[in-house]
Specification:
The protein is of the alpha+beta class and 414 residues long. The chain has a domain of 273 residues: Jelly Rolls, CATH 2.60.120.10. Helices cover 23% and strands 24% of the residues. The chain is built from ten helices and 22 strands. The strands form six sheets. A six-stranded antiparallel beta sheet has the order 6-7-10-19-12-17. Strands 16-13-18-11-20 form a five-stranded antiparallel beta sheet, with no helix packed on it. The chain has a four-stranded antiparallel beta sheet with strand order 14-15-22-21, with no helix packed on it. It is globular and about 60 Å long. The two termini are 35 Å apart.
């Protein structure tokens, strides 16, 4: 990264935040920004304040490190940008991630928060009153005074009382038991572009108290196309965004599309082929236990490999032959140490295949990621309505590797 660039926000010993503005941003748009919160401004008692302040400071640390990483060009060959994988087919295709306007806006929004913390904090809350986000419990909560103070239903209670499928419940109980080890193990590592550690080891209160959602565990029609082990072995938390702790509708009159958080996916699982009308990105925070442990398949909607079979006004049904000759070459490996950033354009069909055969204790391991979406103000297809693909030969069932997959893509309007 260029030395003339200021390193974003630095957490000071008194708990205040001092932020710098990189020279690729217009300071006039960042300083004295005006915020419109999404929903009512939270209010807290004097007793709550110290816990809110701790959670707020860890949130700012997380956001600052993420913005710095995205704009770190030390080894990317880009200008003020990291490089991201966008399509795994045809040998793999990458781009300078900050070439995208949605990414520039997201980074600007983060710096507007960092440079106007008192105003931004008015949109921040622990969200302990939200019934559908949960506390992982266990050692993570024991190490977090904030998670102990703001009470939520725990994963243990969630899988016991709200999950009816016994197989999913079993996987969820294993996920819950090992969640702390999954997010704090020695194999969890930040990619080199990050200025400092923002994992659960460094920000224990944020990871414990952010509010996690095992989004596939409960029964729904969508889960007919899913696998039980991923239903019980996956969760995400949102920090900044419409469903998160920091809920901002507009900054300087412009809608905020940023959603920033983290995901955890157990090993020995295939996150099914899926798509959504919102761009999405992941930074891998795991050192693999073996070569090619973390494999990603991503194919853009305009790829010649994607065939349209049906079309309406709002949706386009497509098929992609994942079983074609040499299809294994369409899956690319990535980790915290190699090609850690993935960016998926709107309607990109993608899946994650996480091998556990080389783990000494696979039940204790997961892939951990910094996760974000950049244009979530587009309500056509938010994170909760991720569209799972299906087997073309057996519609309504999960698409497995080696067969023709069928997906319904949202028809984007100009």
């Amino acid at each position: 990264m260029k030395t003339k660039m200021l390193l974003g926000a630095l957490l000071l010993s008194n708990g205040a935040f001092a932020a710098g503005i990189p020279d690729f941003l217009d300071a006039k748009e960042v300083k004295s920004a005006e915020f419109v919160c999404l929903g009512e401004q939270p209010s807290y008692s004097a007793k709550d304040k110290k816990y809110i302040d701790t959670l707020w400071n860890e949130t700012l640390s997380y956001l600052e490190a993420y913005a710095v990483a995205l704009t770190n060009d030390q080894s990317s060959g880009c200008l003020n940008s990291d490089s991201a994988l966008v399509d795994s087919t045809e040998g793999g295709q990458s781009m300078c991630v900050m070439d995208r306007r949605d990414m520039k806006l997201m980074v600007k929004n983060i710096y507007q928060v960092l440079n106007n913390t008192d105003e931004a904090k008015k949109c921040f809350g622990a969200r302990e009153d939200v019934s559908w986000i949960y506390n992982p419990g266990g050692e993570l909560t024991k190490n977090s005074p904030v998670a102990q103070h703001f009470k939520r239903t725990t994963f243990e209670e969630f899988f016991d009382k709200k999950v009816t499928d016994q197989d999913v419940k079993k996987y969820g109980e294993q996920f819950t038991k090992n969640f702390y080890k999954m997010v704090t193990g020695d194999e969890v590592k930040m990619p080199a572009v990050f200025p400092y550690d923002i994992s659960a080891k460094a920000l224990p209160n944020l990871w414990a108290a952010a509010g996690w959602f095992p989004m596939y565990a409960e029964e729904s029609k969508r889960n007919d196309k899913n696998f039980n082990n991923i239903r019980g072995g996956y969760a995400y938390a949102e920090i900044f965004g419409h469903w998160g702790l920091l809920r901002i509708d507009e900054i300087n009159g412009e809608k905020v599309g940023a959603e920033v958080g983290m995901t955890v996916q157990s090993v020995d699982t295939l996150y099914p082929f899926h798509n959504h009308a919102i761009s999405e990105m992941y930074y891998n925070m795991r050192v693999p236990a073996c070569t090619n442990q973390f494999k990603t398949m991503a194919v853009r909607e305009d790829s010649p490999l994607v065939k349209t079979v049906k079309e309406g006004d709002t949706m386009r049904r497509v098929q992609f032959d994942e079983g074609q000759h040499n299809s294994q070459t369409m899956w690319l490996s990535a980790s915290a140490e190699q090609d850690p950033l993935m960016y998926f354009h709107q309607n990109t069909i993608h899946a994650f295949d996480i091998d556990g055969s080389c783990e000494a204790k696979p039940e204790e391991r997961a892939i951990v990621s910094v996760w974000a979406r950049s244009n979530a103000h587009d309500k056509r297809n938010d994170y909760g309505t991720t569209l799972l693909c299906e087997s073309a030969a057996n519609p309504g069932t999960p698409a497995k590797r080696g067969e023709v997959i069928q997906c319904d893509l949202t028809k984007l309007k100009w």
